[in-house]
Batch of 2 targets.
Target 1
Amino acid sequence: MTGSYCAICGEALLYAAKTAGQPLDGRCRLCRLAAPPFERAVAYGSYDGALRDLVHLLKFSQVRPAAQVLGRMLAESIAALDPSLPSGIISVIPVPLHAHKQSQRGFNQADLIARAALKQLSRSGHVKKFELCAGALVRLRDTGSQIGLTRHQRRQNLRGAFAVKDATAISNRNILLVDDVYTTGATASECARVLRRAGAARVWVATAGRTLRVSNFFVEPDVSEGRDDEPGMTEHSMAEPGMTEASREPTIGIATHVG
Ligand SMILES: [Zn+2]
């Protein structure tokens, strides 16, 4: 399955592969236009079906045991990424929630999933490599739901939303940023940017779920270079009939093409 997905962000390359005259260097169009501030983003599977149900159970129904299952999924994607990670300690940082949101929900789902994943990894001998570093990155603003926003709007919405609280925990560290779902990558990119600015050596991203962009499957290649407003990619549109097969099929690739 290698070559079907962007080597950086994991996006399906169906669109790029069909665009004549573009170099097929293993990167998607967006990653070629501007390299993300992270080395690579990996996910266990496509954000639909059972995986999506689990995330909803955890986030919206506060069913905490769902974090254990999602954590095991996350552990698999981290284990697959591991061979391409440098030696030494990797600081694991869950994408933070705003304090208000976290007290409303009672927990940060990314933190719960990260803890469950690290527990799982320690059982398979990875214990010394990954070190949870919660609290070093904070969310200063509650950015609200990003559903329905374009990539550009998401990026603007997230500007200044994150800050490094403990620079010594970040400086010169290799960091694995963890979240429940990677949608457009706007959140991961903004966190990685803030971490890099605070002196992080390199940043990787691992999530349980991954939304594959609708545009890669359905939009005609009329997007001019430099434009980064993708057509509104909403969570809703991913659930449309007909999308399921296209989005489910590459799932295996996401989980296995890494490392
Ligand atoms: Zn990419």
Note: The chain has one domain: 37-218+231-256.
Target 2
Amino acid sequence: MKTLKVGIIGGGLMGREVACAIGRWCALVDFPVRLELTAVCDLVETTREWFRQVPTVRLLTADYHELLRSDVDFVYVAVPHHLHEAVYLDVLRAGKDLFAEKPFGIDLEAARKIRDTARELGRFVRCSSEFPFLPGAQKAWQFLRSAELGHLIEIRSGFWHASDLDPTKPVNWKRQSQFCGAIGVMGDLGMHAVHLPLRLGWRPKRVYAQLQKIYYERPDGKGGMAACDTWDNAQLHCETEIAGTEVPLHLSTKRLAPHEMNTWFIEVLGTERGVRFSTKEPKTVWLFERRKEQVWERYDVGHAASAFPVVTGGIFEAGFSDCFLQMWAAFVAEREGLLGGRFGCATPDEAVASHEIFAAALNSHAERRAVEI
Ligand SMILES: NC(=O)c1ccc[n+]([C@@H]2O[C@H](COP(=O)([O-])OP(=O)(O)OC[C@H]3O[C@@H](n4cnc5c(N)ncnc54)[C@H](O)[C@@H]3O)[C@@H](O)[C@H]2O)c1
């Protein structure tokens, strides 16, 4: 079996998640490639030390250039957004393929530069967005690809959490524009909301954005207060053209959504059929059909609906770590030319398209008008 060596730059929240996904690789059934995490880079020593428990890790370093000189086949990068452009470009120029984290650069200009450089150098690059890999989301995607929906009425896609409702939560880089980007919450959560619509060809033409800053400062963790200048919530009222008709597409990303805890959802309504899936009910997919009576049918989905078969029981329910593993399987399969008709990770073009939406949303909000994308 072929083995690919993986390096991680940024061993924080997501870097550790990746190490765990690679550790569970044996859950994939008959997958033709094995992964080995061999090198990890993080500036913080205690963060690096955590990776000592992974037996295949041979290099721990604070200098990512040292990691790029090692024999890794591709690199996963999970660092704050202001570093994306420089680190991603260095990975590509070092001759390595890249599994990038969203938002794929701090702004549109950075995203275009990363995409164009990858293209020029012929590197395989994808961007992380794991929720469409949940079995329920996969069922929704299969349905949306094939069902006769009738006239499309509206599309809602979003990602909400409430982690920031507590005003005493200390500030961190995700709440400061210089590190997170002027797009704020859209940079944090927007790729999750746009991946499936973009993959279905539902590219917004126009956007009217409502952006909110709700808390302007937070404890700095040193006894004082620090400015918290990113957008907390963003509601993008878009129009997309489907079969010659303009259809409302609502994209919403919120850090202050009371009672939500990492809720990713999609709802598509047509005159004949519709679909609704939310991680709030992670094993439930709702399908609508206009019959004599109007009916929402409720389906339970387990691992059997995953894109890549796993040893986990087909009726067992899936969660975050499962869709993360499925996304990684899709990245590796596509890099090896083995994706087939399965759903793939977000492409550099899709990442750039997401930034085009977010940049237009910033203009829209500043000018309080709908903006063409
Ligand atoms: N796909 C998802 O669901 C998801 C969830 C959260 C975050 N993210 C994305 O992942 C990325 C990282 O977010 P996080 O939550 O893991 O952040 P984090 O703050 O937990 O981790 C970032 C790590 O990068 C390290 N770092 C900073 N500069 C570095 C450098 N020059 N060299 C090496 N390491 C460096 C930091 O020490 C830290 O450990 C962001 O792009 C974020 O948007 C994705």
Note: The mean pLDDT is 97.
